[in-house]
Write a structure and sequence with these properties.
Elements lengths: L1 H6 L3 H14 L4 H14 L2 H14 L4 H13 L3 H14 L4 H13 L3 H14 L4 H12 L4 H14 L4 H13 L3 H13 L3 H17 L2
Helix pairs in contact: 2-3, 3-4, 3-5, 4-5, 5-6, 5-7, 6-7, 7-8, 8-9, 9-10, 10-11, 11-12, 12-13
Length: 215
């Protein structure tokens, strides 16, 4: 029942159900992990961390808890600790794509793009339909000036998920960096129409510059 409430984003009810579960099985690591997810989604990172810590204390082999704590630590900008957690998750389960994906994000945040690229590529070797991995790999490549290559990856992300607004926005940025203002504007407009506020700002910026240079 708790998982059903979580899926419906009824987080208070989910937490109540998971707490009831702990009342029956106080050493069930999965309930603590699920509580961590629920508190994290509520934005209560302190309680979320406590729940993940408890889950790992009860079961040091619980891959999911390490992955979840890794991502939480990324949100808290605790990058070195995040890298430790995701690396441990990979030790426990070398084919867990989320561990590579999250570790790639952490490496990117440290500016270690070569390591990030390897992790995103590993994610895609496990799941070639992971649109976020294509996006993140493209973003990492863009930091090294590989605009043509990143463009191809954004294309793949959109092929996998035609409603991926951020991928259109980033493809627009790639086109802009390549000097193709028409395609940049087109992609920003698509993402903006999908509700991506940053894309709307980018579109307005491009249009303003075009008007400024018009004869």
């Amino acid at each position: 029942m708790g998982c059903a409430y979580y899926a419906q984003n009824r987080l208070d009810q989910a937490i109540e159900q998971f707490m009831r579960g702990l009342g029956i099985s106080p050493n069930d690591d999965s309930f603590y992990n699920d509580l961590g997810l629920s508190y994290e989604r509520k934005g209560d990172f302190t309680y979320a961390a406590e729940m993940y810590n408890k889950a790992i204390e009860l079961n040091p082999n619980l891959t999911e808890a390490f992955i979840n704590r890794c991502y939480l630590r990324i949100k808290q900008n605790e990058i070195d600790l995040a890298l430790e957690d995701c690396s441990q998750a990979i030790v426990l389960n070398p084919v867990q794509k989320a561990a590579y994906g999250n570790r790639g994000i952490a490496y990117s945040m440290k500016g270690q793009y070569d390591a990030a690229i390897k992790d995103f590529e590993r994610t895609l070797s496990i799941d070639p339909y992971d649109e976020s991995a294509y996006l993140n790999l493209g973003l990492a490549l863009s930091k090294t000036g590989m605009y043509v290559e990143e463009l191809e990856l954004f294309n793949k992300a959109i092929t996998v998920n035609p409603n991926f607004a951020k991928a259109y926005r980033m493809r627009g940025t790639a086109y802009y960096n390549l000097g193709n203002i028409l395609e940049a504007s087109s992609n920003f407009r698509v993402a903006c129409n999908m509700g991506d506020g940053e894309a709307c700002k980018s579109l307005q910026s491009v249009l303003s510059k075009q008007h400024a240079i018009a004869p």
